[in-house]
């Protein structure tokens, strides 16, 4: 087992890298774990999703395959602490994670079982309001270390463990672990804040080369210097254009539980396409192009004009409107209705998406309004919502969930990168996902 380390960060030689393998299939998990171990990771974690899908067989398999490494079982135990620790320890776990929200007696019994069967108890402070107080309490119960864990869902809205790690590390004498979106850029900050056990998941498990990714994080931890990385960052409000540009519209709908895609709205340009911006909404009637054209004066550079023309087949948009937008810097237009002058629009490079392409336009009668909540392609769109379009179509992201969905979409993008690499090595998608095993029963 690794040394406990000092009260603070200790020397950098004492820092432990724990790799959280949160796959749902054992074959993929073992493959990633082996590569991470080859890269120098000292602790390999059987993550909660893997435990729930494969049970203690995953712990046994990790123990057998990863000689000389400490196997961590992220049980997230909430009750029957002694029984669950016994199960994990007998399967080969050297560390078992128990929830800090569990009853005190659950934690005490977990510690007793850990002493009996030779494994350490780590307390996950996820969901605890006063983490400092709880850390002190569980320290007195005899746990080996506490984990300041910013969960995946919390990461999606931009939370980070650094400040809380510092507060907890100053309050207790036992080691402090840190988890939550850590990568070569952010991991050194939590060691400086007082963490000696660094838990990394996606930055390694989603990498095309987990061994190289592990080596890079260990280098950052050893030197204490943040190393740049192209992926695995979390995006803030000011960076949403960058995030939505990186992710595809399929990535975004996957991230939003298959919601948000406009139906029947197609690009009129030839690809590759990418349109990202906040919506300026327009409601009109079939063929009435007055409000759509007036919206150009309202729209700001980088915004997208979204028009509900009730699916009409007489054009409410054409070359001159597009040229006006192009000169002003408007990012694009989306029309649940008809557009014309498509060759000219393509030639100028203005991005347009519509339900119909026709030659005839209507008259500027002035019906409708600008800025109201509309429905376009079956999706509700409000002014300020995010609109993303590419060769696959258009999706809408509610403005209040934009940071979360952007981060989740990039997470989907990164996961697919890992699967793409495994397919490149000779596997297939069905084999990697073990589809037959996980087909719905009944």
Major beta sheet summary: 8 strands, parallel, barrel
What's the overall average pLDDT, rounded? 91
Q: Mind telling me the CATH class of the largest domain?
A: Alpha Beta
- Overall outline: elongated
CATH topology of the largest domain: TIM Barrel
What is the structural class?
alpha/beta
Which bin fits the share of residues in helices?
25-40%
Note poorly predicted spans: 1-13
Proportion of strand residues = 15-25%
CATH architecture of the largest domain: Alpha-Beta Barrel
Q: Report the CATH superfamily of the largest domain.
A: Aldolase class I
Could you tell me the number of beta strands? 18
Number of domains: 2
Record keyword descriptors for this entry.
single chain; 442 residues; alpha/beta; TIM Barrel; Glucose Oxidase, domain 1; 2 domains; eight-stranded parallel beta barrel; eight-stranded mixed β-sheet; 18 helices; 18 strands; elongated
In short:
This protein has 442 residues and is α/β, with parallel strands linked by helices.
Commentary on this structure:
This protein is α/β, with parallel strands linked by helices. The protein folds into 2 domains: 212 residues, TIM Barrel; 166 residues, Ribonuclease E inhibitor RraA/RraA-like (Glucose Oxidase, domain 1, 3-Layer(bba) Sandwich), CATH 3.50.30.40. It is 39% helix and 20% strand. Strands 1-2-3-4-5-6-7-8 form an 8-stranded parallel barrel, surrounded by 8 helices. Strands 9, 10, 11, 12, 13, 14, 17 and 18 form an 8-stranded mixed β-sheet that branches. Helix 4 links the parallel strand 3 and strand 4. Helix 15 packs parallel to helix 16. The longest helix is centred in the last third of the chain and has 23 residues. It is elongated and about 85 Å long. The N terminus is likely disordered.
């Amino acid at each position: 087992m690794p040394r406990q380390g000092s009260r603070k960060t200790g020397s950098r030689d004492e820092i432990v890298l724990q790799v959280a393998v949160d796959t749902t299939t054992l074959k993929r998990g073992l493959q990633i774990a082996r590569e991470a171990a080859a890269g120098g990771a000292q602790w390999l974690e059987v993550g909660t999703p893997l435990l729930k899908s494969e049970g203690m067989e995953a712990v046994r398999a990790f123990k057998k395959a990863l000689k000389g490494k400490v196997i961590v079982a992220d049980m997230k135990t909430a009750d029957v602490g002694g029984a669950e620790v016994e199960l994990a320890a007998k399967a080969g776990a050297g560390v078992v994670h128990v929830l800090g929200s569990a009853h005190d007696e659950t934690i005490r019994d977990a510690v007793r079982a850990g002493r009996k069967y030779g494994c350490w108890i780590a307390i996950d402070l996820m969901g605890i309001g006063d983490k400092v107080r709880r850390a002190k309490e569980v320290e007195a119960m005899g746990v080996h270390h506490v984990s300041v864990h910013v969960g995946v869902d919390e990461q999606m809205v931009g939370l980070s463990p650094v400040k809380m790690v510092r507060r907890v590390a100053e309050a207790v004498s036992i080691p402090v672990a840190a988890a939550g979106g850590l990568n070569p850029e952010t991991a050194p900050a939590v060691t400086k804040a007082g963490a000696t056990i660094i838990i990394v998941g996606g930055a390694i498990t989603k990498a095309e080369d987990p061994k190289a990714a592990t080596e890079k994080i260990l280098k950052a931890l050893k030197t204490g210097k943040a190393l740049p990385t192209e992926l695995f960052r979390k995006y803030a409000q000011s960076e949403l254009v960058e995030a939505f540009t990186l992710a595809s519209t399929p990535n975004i709908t996957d991230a939003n539980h298959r919601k948000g895609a406009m139906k029947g709205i197609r690009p009129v340009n030839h690809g590759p396409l990418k349109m990202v911006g906040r919506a300026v909404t327009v409601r009109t009637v079939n063929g009435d192009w007055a409000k759509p054209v007036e919206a150009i004066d309202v729209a700001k550079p980088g915004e997208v004009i979204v028009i509900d023309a009730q699916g009409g087949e007489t054009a409410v948009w054409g070359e001159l409107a597009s040229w006006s937008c192009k000169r002003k810097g408007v990012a694009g237009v989306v029309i649940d209705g008809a557009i014309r002058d498509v060759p000219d629009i393509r030639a100028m490079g203005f991005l347009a998406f519509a339900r119909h392409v026709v030659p005839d336009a209507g008259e500027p009668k002035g019906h409708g309004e600008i800025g109201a909540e509309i429905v376009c392609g079956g999706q509700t769109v409000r002014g300020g919502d995010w609109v993303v379009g590419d060769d696959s179509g258009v999706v809408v992201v509610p403005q209040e969930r934009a940071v979360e969905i952007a981060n989740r979409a990039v997470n989907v993008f990164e996961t697919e990168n890992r699967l793409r690499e495994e397919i490149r090595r000779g596997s297939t998608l069905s084999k990697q996902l073990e589809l037959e095993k996980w087909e719905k029963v009944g």
